[in-house]
């Protein structure tokens, strides 16, 4: 875990934004719509506070958990047991050599130009968490997108209800209208972006695929079609097993971003072929 990753403009901007959304949703919009002294108001404030808390926990986990680096002792699997250059070339492992790190990359690992390192099961480098999203923090990232999308959609519903309930004709000042409209626009945009991102990662998760593998897959499908064959993603074991592999075997812990005890070394992965 590296705490200094927290000290970056995008990370601090996200923390400020979450704080702003939390404060306005609870102390302005819930107060305006239901009142923070009514039982329904308290219930909504509690639900939203829990979502915001889990949003922050997943965000911290995603920033602080190391995505996974290739161990210096890693040697690629070569069938004839020889790690000589010729043997590696023959087995197609040579293409998995990283010229920048001067190491062999395990399956699903890729070099990140920003981190200047090879990352295990790399998905993408995320500016907003100032970290790569890889093998060890992908679960935290999925949780972050889930809680952030849910938090924004919840906040959007509260703002809309508060705006609809308010009697705008009498006594309400112009700056308050501007404030409502600005917050509404921010939250609608965020809900759309995060909702789309959530849909995309649900698709990847259900196929046990990374963003990089999705793009590689497009080319692989095209090449396979050209030669009259079909291409299947080698790590797709079916929806339930894919979720188990990424989020863990216990359903109750799927939404705990810090719970990653089910993860192994991130160097070797079973493929559908291994199961045949
Ligand atoms: Zn590298
Ligand atoms: Zn990176």
UniProtKB/TrEMBL annotation:
InterPro entries per the UniProt record, alphabetical: Palmitoyltrfase_DHHC, PFA4/ZDH16/20/ERF2-like
Organism: Nelumbo nucifera (Sacred lotus)
EC number: 2.3.1.225
PROSITE patterns reported in the protein's UniProt record: DHHC
One of the record's GO cellular component terms: membrane
Gene: LOC104586342
Similarity-based family: Belongs to the DHHC palmitoyltransferase family.
Membrane topology, as annotated: Multi-pass membrane protein
Subcellular localization: Membrane
Keyword vocabulary terms for this entry: Acyltransferase, Membrane, Transferase, Transmembrane, Transmembrane helix
Gene Ontology molecular function: protein-cysteine S-palmitoyltransferase activity
Free-text comment about domains: The DHHC domain is required for palmitoyltransferase activity.
Pfam families, A to Z: DHHC
Residues that span the membrane, as ranges: 7-30, 42-65, 144-164, 176-200
One Gene Ontology biological process: protein targeting to membrane
Recorded superkingdom: Eukaryota
Catalytic activity: L-cysteinyl-[protein] + hexadecanoyl-CoA = S-hexadecanoyl-L-cysteinyl-[protein] + CoA
Record's protein name: S-acyltransferase
Keyword Membrane set for record: yes
Lineage, top ranks: Eukaryota, Viridiplantae, Streptophyta, Embryophyta, Tracheophyta
Palmitoyltransferase DHHC domain ranges (all copies): 95-215
């Amino acid at each position: 875990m590296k705490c200094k990753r927290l000290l970056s403009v995008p990370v601090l901007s996200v923390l400020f934004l979450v704080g702003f959304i939390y404060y306005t949703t609870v102390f302005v919009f819930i107060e305006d719509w239901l009142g923070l002294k009514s039982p329904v108001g308290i219930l909504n404030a509690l639900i939203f506070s829990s979502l915001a808390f889990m949003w922050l926990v997943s965000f911290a986990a995603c920033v602080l958990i190391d995505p996974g680096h290739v161990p210096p002792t890693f040697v690629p699997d070569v069938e004839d047991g020889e790690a000589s250059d010729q043997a590696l070339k023959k087995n197609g492992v040579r293409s998995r050599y990283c010229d920048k790190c001067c190491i062999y990359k395990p399956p699903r690992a890729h070099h990140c130009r920003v981190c200047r390192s090879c990352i295990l099961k790399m998905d993408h480098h995320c500016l907003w968490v100032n970290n790569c999203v890889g093998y060890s923090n992908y679960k935290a990232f999925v949780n972050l997108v889930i809680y952030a999308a849910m938090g924004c959609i919840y906040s959007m519903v509260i703002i809309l209800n508060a705006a609809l309930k308010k009697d705008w004709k009498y006594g309400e000042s112009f700056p308050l209208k501007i404030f409502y409209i600005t917050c509404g626009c921010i939250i609608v945009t965020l809900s759309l972006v995060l909702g789309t991102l959530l849909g995309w990662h649900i698709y990847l998760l259900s196929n046990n695929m990374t963003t990089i593998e999705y793009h590689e897959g497009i080319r692989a499908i095209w090449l396979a079609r050209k030669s009259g064959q079909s291409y299947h993603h080698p790590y797709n074991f079916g929806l339930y097993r894919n979720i188990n592999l990424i989020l863990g075997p216990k359903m109750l812990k799927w939404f705990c971003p810090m719970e990653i005890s089910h993860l192994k070394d991130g160097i070797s992965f079973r493929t559908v072929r291994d199961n045949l």
